[in-house]
Amino acid sequence: MDADLQDEPEVLLDMYRTLRSDNVDIVYAVRTARRDTRLRRFFYFLFYRLYVYLADIPAQADSGDFCVMSRRAVRVLLSLPEKLRFVRGLRAWTGLPSKPFPISRPARAAGRPQYSLRKLARLAFSGLTSFSTRPLRLGFICGTLLCLGALIGALTYLGIALFTDIHLTAPGFSTLVIALLFSNGLVFLYLGVLGEYIGQMFMEVKARPSFIVERTINIETTQGFDERD
């Protein structure tokens, strides 16, 4: 939870009871109402919808870091080696049984928020880039569209030249446009291929485990994730 007490500590007891009664590992808060400025609410709304669309393992919209976790969930999170931690994304990545807990976040009672819009934008960008490689595919998509446009334009221009008596007022202009479209498309395609390789390296460098062992049987270990308290 945040240290400014804007997330009410007494809600933790209700979240803990839900964790125990529903036999889940994570109970996280979902903010059904925010008492922030309209500009902040707009950016929060925009970020979560964009994150849910782009992320390979999206987190619950309007959820925050405020949550209750079992010991098993905490150990799984601590076992991840990466340094830039977007907690709500990593929490969803674990795949452990979880449940949302709707809350209405009150307004700040005193003081000023430490997170400016600039810091919030940096956090949002970190969250988007930590759990999605889709932006790297934009080059491949743009390159494909440009090459297809150039091919369609070339076929159209060839059909006009062969089967009609239409004479263009600027000979050579269409050929120049088609050549530029195709050459730019090839550049974007190459960038898209590079993006795919970079995306693979990006996921490898994070060194997240390929799987998580939920429990073991007849194996003595001090690093298991089968403890729930």
Compact overview of the structure:
By secondary structure, this protein is mostly helical. The protein has helices spanning 11-21, 38-54, 71-79, 87-93, 117-130, 138-163, 173-206; strands spanning 26-33, 63-69, 98-104.
How does this model look, in words?
By secondary structure, the protein is mainly alpha-helical. The chain has 2 domains: 11-132, no CATH class; 135-206. It is 52% helix and 10% strand. A 3-stranded mixed sheet has the order 2-1-3. The chain is elongated and about 80 Å long.
Gap between N and C termini: 19 Å
**Spans with pLDDT under 50 lasting ≥5 residues?**
224-229
Share in β-strands: 5-15%
- What's the rounded overall pLDDT mean? 81
